[in-house]
Amino acid sequence: MRVLAAMSGGVDSAVAAARAVEAGHDVVGVHLALSRMPGTLRTGSRGCCTIEDSRDAYRACDLLGIPFYVWDFSERFQEDVVQDFIDEYAAGRTPNPCMRCNERIKFAALLEKAVALGFDAVCTGHYAKVITDADGNRELHRAADWAKDQSYVLGVLTHEQLQHAMFPLAETPSKAEVRAEAERRGLSVANKPDSHDICFIPDGDTAGWLAEKIEMQPGDIVDETGAKVGDHAGANSFTVGQRRGLKLGRPAADGKPRFVLEIRPKENTVVVGPQALLAVEEIRGIRISWAGLPIAEVATGEEFPCHAQVRAHGDAVPARARVEDVDGAAQLVVTLEEAMRGVAPGQTIVLYQGSRVLGQATIDKARSLQRVEL
């Protein structure tokens, strides 16, 4: 097969490309330039997609003896990921930019271009597995190493995209083994630290970064009863579940910390309360997509058992889900058998059955049995 290897400059993508070459595929490496500010270099393990990363990707391809290219996707990235991030925060939601990047850049824009150029598959260093069923349909599953599993951030992949997805690290039992393999192969990135944080906010100061992009207006912080307990400099810089940085002048009656329960952008109000009120038992999601062919219950509207996960490294909890028609639009309704805390509109909920990823939706509303709808 002709395989396009997406080379981030990290150890995972380098080893994935090496395995694709070793398997006999015709491999070409490509690094995505996602920023028009290439002078920024990595600081420790923060950020990614820098000049340093592109050089590391080139060195890996040179060692493997495969062609290497840099594709400029910076405009698409700015519009589909960065601006989406800003817009979602401005609307009082908490987005996941890595989900949007996988959805719109790495497995939409990149795959579209790859297929147009005659490639059969896009290979990445994600820890996830694609399984083909008896009828030849492809399913997305968790990786062998559940501690490193990245199927959550790939939950946005569609049936068509899975036909062209290749994840050579799927069966690797640990990240330590990947690093050891990179060392054996002579790859210079063998001990390169993993990247963390949002790539376009490498210093990790999301609130400070947003303050430069969104016009912040001071407003009230109220408790769950509606009583004012403090002031804020801009509601858009808060997120559900946040405890630090509230700077409340009026302590809670029980003396315990308060947490952000809700953000109301139209009123420019932040609602806080005790940690217990963060518990959510029902989630409603919009912008649904299915990873592979949807299960039969999706079409019939019947409820089906599943596990639900709302964070990349969070636990999946048992749940039941169904698809409803609400004013002509499909809405995913998930009833949790174990309450989750800190669920925020804008986050992504991914559904599983066993190790299989069923699909995902963007959280629109959450409901707590102890509170009115958020």
From TrEMBL:
The record marks 126, 347 as: Interaction with tRNA. Its EC number is 2.8.1.13. Keywords: ATP-binding, Cytoplasm, Disulfide bond, Nucleotide-binding, RNA-binding, Transferase, tRNA processing, tRNA-binding. ATP binds at residues 6-13, 32, 125. Residues 148-150 are annotated as: Interaction with tRNA. It is found in: Cytoplasm. The active site is at residues 101, 199. It catalyses: S-sulfanyl-L-cysteinyl-[protein] + uridine(34) in tRNA + AH2 + ATP = 2-thiouridine(34) in tRNA + L-cysteinyl-[protein] + A + AMP + diphosphate + H(+). Residues 283-363 form the tRNA-specific 2-thiouridylase MnmA-like C-terminal domain. Transmembrane segments: none annotated. It comes from the Bacteria. GO terms for molecular function: tRNA-uridine 2-sulfurtransferase activity. The keyword Nucleotide-binding applies. Pfam families: tRNA_Me_trans, tRNA_Me_trans_C, tRNA_Me_trans_M. Belongs to the MnmA/TRMU family. This is tRNA-specific 2-thiouridylase MnmA.
